[in-house]
């Protein structure tokens, strides 16, 4: 019995934010019915495949049921109404206006089921001048300012490795849905929540864009302590063209490392402002790390209290012993899944669940 046992979720969303939201609910006991178009969620076709299914699809849709409905047909709409009759949550990720045209906007659904918690996920929200602007994660990151600091030393922004706007929207949506369910316990009535990827992402800039938030200039990566201007929050190339990082700026860690390197005279530089003042220290560390291979540095740092890590690729990251120890990567029936990121002490350990095939 998971924390969300007894909660029924109807999820019409595709791809990433909505499916992630509903999968996290399914992982903790919710009954999730994934409503897909007759052709299925496009993520079903995304390579690579393993054990007959897309790895992407499986890792975002496990533990759900699936139904294929043509919502432009009377039969499809009638079936969706049947599913919504006793549902607790509805999730949709269509472009604004689509659900109203189909007859399943919040007002229509709540008229039949006042207890429903209805969550819409879109790039910029359901209303306003940007509501109908098409955008996926990259465009949202660009418009929210984040892409400007996802740059190299040459100042050129690069495509992010993490779809942060998508993930932020999924997590924001989950938080809002759970809050609405708690509120419903007091009032008996559901609610509507409009989740925008842009709005979800923006609060993540508080620690890097303080100047801009307060009306001043935007951050410049190479002069910002968290974005590339600090010696002890920095990426360094090693002798074998791999990389390592120093990942904490506390003076105690700088002192520990510089003592071990017999360069304690450089410690005052670590306490200066990020950017040009720390350039000599960054230059010294670049030369130092270039003198050994990545794995040689891993061994060298093993007995030192310094916030150091090698930069791993995903194969290396997933093969680490503690990943298996924590149950973060599991294999069952020839298929691999990333396990839930949290668990409750009072509940039995999570068990691997299947992702649904699309019914004929």
Automatic annotation (TrEMBL):
Whose protein is this, by species?
Answer: Parasphingorhabdus marina DSM 22363
Listed Pfam families = CoA_transf_3 (PF02515)
Reply yes or no: does the keyword Hydrolase apply: no
Gene Ontology molecular function terms on file? transferase activity
What is the protein's given name?
A: Crotonobetainyl-CoA:carnitine CoA-transferase CaiB
Question: Matching InterPro entries, A to Z?
Answer: CoA-transferase_III, CoA-Trfase_fam_III, CoA-Trfase_III_dom3_sf, CoA-Trfase_III_dom_1_sf
Q: Name the UniProt key words of this record, in alphabetical order.
A: Transferase
Q: Which domain of life is it from?
A: Bacteria
Name the Gene3D superfamilies for this protein: Crotonobetainyl-coa:carnitine coa-transferase, domain 1 (3.40.50.10540), formyl-coa transferase, domain 3 (3.30.1540.10)
PANTHER family annotated for this entry? ALPHA-METHYLACYL-COA RACEMASE, SUCCINYL-COA--D-CITRAMALATE COA-TRANSFERASE
């Amino acid at each position: 019995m998971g924390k969300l046992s007894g909660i029924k979720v109807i999820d019409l969303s595709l791809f990433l934010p909505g499916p992630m939201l509903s999968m996290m609910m399914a992982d903790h006991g919710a009954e999730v019915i994934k409503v897909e178009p007759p052709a299925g969620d496009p993520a079903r076709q995304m390579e690579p495949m393993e054990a007959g299914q897309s790895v992407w699809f499986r890792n975002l849709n496990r533990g759900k049921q699936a139904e294929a409905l043509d919502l432009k047909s009377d039969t499809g709409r009638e079936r969706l109404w049947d599913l919504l009759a006793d549902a607790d949550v509805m999730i949709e990720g269509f472009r604004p206006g689509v659900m109203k045209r189909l007859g399943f906007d919040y007002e229509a659904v709540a008229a039949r089921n006042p207890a429903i918690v209805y969550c819409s996920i879109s790039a910029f929200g359901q209303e306003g001048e940007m509501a109908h602007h098409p955008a996926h994660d990259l465009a949202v990151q660009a418009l929210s300012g984040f892409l400007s600091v996802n740059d190299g030393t040459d100042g050129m922004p690069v495509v992010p490795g993490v779809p942060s706007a998508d993930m932020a929207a999924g997590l924001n949506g989950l938080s809002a849905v759970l809050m609405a369910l708690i509120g419903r316990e007091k009032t008996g009535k559901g609610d509507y929540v409009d989740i925008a990827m842009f709005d979800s992402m923006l609060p993540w800039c508080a620690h890097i864009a303080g100047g801009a938030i307060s009306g001043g200039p935007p951050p410049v990566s190479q002069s910002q302590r968290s974005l590339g201007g600090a010696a002890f929050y920095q990426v360094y190339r090693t002798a074998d063209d791999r990389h390592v990082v120093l990942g904490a700026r506390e003076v105690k860690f700088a002192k520990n490392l510089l003592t071990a390197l017999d360069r304690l005279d450089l410690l005052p530089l670590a306490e200066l402002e990020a950017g040009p003042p720390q350039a000599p220290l960054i230059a010294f560390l670049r030369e130092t790390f270039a003198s050994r291979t990545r794995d040689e540095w891993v061994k060298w740092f093993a007995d030192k209290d310094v916030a150091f890590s090698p930069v791993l690729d995903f194969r290396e990251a997933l093969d680490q012993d503690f990943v298996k120890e924590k149950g973060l990567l599991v294999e069952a029936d020839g298929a691999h899944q990333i396990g839930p990121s949290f668990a409750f002490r009072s509940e039995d350990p999570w068990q691997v669940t299947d992702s649904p095939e699309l019914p004929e």
